[in-house]
Amino acid sequence: MAAWTDIFVLGLVLSNFRLLASSRLTVMIETMVLQAFALTAILLTLADRPWPLRLIVLSLVTLAVKGALLPWLLRRTMRAADVRREIEPFIGYNVSILAGIAILGLGFLIVQPLKATVVPGSASLLPGALFTTLTGLLIIVSRRKALAQVVGYLAMENGIYAFGAALVVKEPMLVEMGVLLDVFVAVFVMGITIYQINREFDHIDTDRLSELKD
Amino acid sequence: MTLTASILHWLAAVLLAPLLVGVINRTKAFFGGRRGQPFLQVYHDLFKLMGKGAVYSQTATWIFRFGPMLGLAVVLTALAIVPAGGLRALFVFPGDFVFLAYTLGLMRFFTVLAALDTGSAFEGMGASREMQFALLAEPVLFAGLAVLAAGSGQLSLSGIYNQLWSAGMRPEGAPVLLVALTLLMVLLAENARIPVDDPATHLELTMIHEVMVLDHCGVDLAFIQYGAALKLWLFAALVTGLAIPLRTGQPMVDLVVTIAGIFITAVVVGIVESTMARLRLVRVPQMLVASLALSLAAFFWILR
Questions:
Q1: Closest by alpha carbon to A179, among A197, A141, A153, A205?
Q2: A71 close contact with B: CB closer than 8 A
């Protein structure tokens, strides 16, 4: 199963590059759906067969929340705010990709000392998870549109989830459920906030919010 | 038995390469809702061109005539070191993937020289674009092959491909698939297929490869088109060997599977061409940078 885990981690890595390279918000949201599928698959391939019931439930909930509910919320917000694409990111797409390569290299470097603590069969999982987290961070700091930043936040959370996946096979279902709930609430609040920002200022460019005066 | 299979693969490439182009055209026609040209149309075109005489400009020198000949000879040589799946190629020596990259480089160099030799500003433009994209595609090819070489500890293409998808394979599956993907992107760039260049267009501002061969006719043009088909086969064989996880150990079965895989690659190329729009010229480097990113990702993966 280790080979399959590797392949799905690879899918996660590729989806991150897609996130870094795309300017269209629809593409970014679609990528979130892909990441949800990759995460679920990683979770299932890591576990021993036969899968325990709680694992199946957890993966179904993950898929429902990350793969359907959150994208639906994001799409709705996108329509409401009437933005299609990230026009002028702080960091361009080519440079973003190159930064992505650097981050990936960094990820593989950083996990060297952690190797011993990883569950067997998931040697590529930690660098992949770290890369996803840092990609999310990069997108949050380098994109102008609030919606793209929300997607970055989600990617970051996906990375943390993948970190957890290495351990979730053992126990902490409760933690995962808690995280899922947190993210759901966060995106829900952000959706409302973005809508309000947009209604108030006719745009969702966060950098221009610093010009607010009373 | 293995030697026979190697020779058969080379022969299959020589005989079936134009059919590969036919398959791509039919796939595109299918997606366009048309029936499309017959599979053998490319052969008919080549025969027609072979029967025609050539017209040479008075300002063109021997380089102009030499280019197509050398291109064909070089690509036939390069095919002899490309393994079919896990089978040995006709010639195997350490570092032959460097040889492969630079024989193809030589082919491109002379195509460009022949284009410049005509003195047409138009062809010069195509030549400059070709070199610009080749400059970006070559590191991708090398990075991909370097991943395989470093991962497997082998220095010849046949050695690398031979141990893929067998027990205890190094490098393991995920980076190999990643390299297959980047090589597919290199295939599209090197063979002037759609996201990079449109082989069907004859609009001046968009052409890259076609514009360089505008002044060639007759036998020369046949050589160029045949060489292009062989080059397509070569890259398709490289991609197929990585992407198809089937090594039976029976040389003949492996050969048939590989050839089927090569045609599947052609169908995939046709689907890519049908579903994607041609990238703007300024976006092409971005695509190639992205594929470089993927092969470097694979590199980190195996160095882990």
A1: A153
A2: no
Domain count across chain B:
1
**How many domains, chain A?**
1
Q: Is the pTM of this model over 0.80?
A: yes
Separation CA B45–CA B57 (nearest Å): 23
The amino acid that residue A153 corresponds to is: Y
How many angstroms separate the CA atoms of B289 and B185, rounded? 11
Whether residue A17 and residue B290 make contact (CB cut-off 8 A), yes or no, is yes
CB of B40 closer than 8 Å to CB of B22: yes
Q: In sequence order, what E strands does A41-188 have?
A: none
Tens digit of each residue's pLDDT (9 = 90 or more) over B252-263: 888 999 999 999
The 10s digit of each residue's pLDDT in A51-80 is 878 778 888 888 888 889 889 988 888 888
User: CA B192 to CA B205: how far, in whole Å?
Assistant: 15
Identify the domain containing residue A173 by its residue range. Answer: 2-207
Set of chain A residues whose Cβ sits within 8 Å of the Cβ of B296: 101, 104-105
Q: Does B290 reach chain A within 8 Å, measured CB to CB?
A: yes
Per DSSP, the three-state class of A205 is strand
How many CB pairs lie under 8 A apart between chains A and B? Answer: 54
pLDDT at position B25: 92
Q: Cβ contacts (< 8 Å) between B174 and chain A: which residues?
A: 3, 6-7, 9-10, 124
Whole-number Å distance between alpha carbons of A149 and B19: 49
Say if CB A97 and CB A21 are below 8 A apart. yes
Structural domain boundaries, residue B80: 2-303
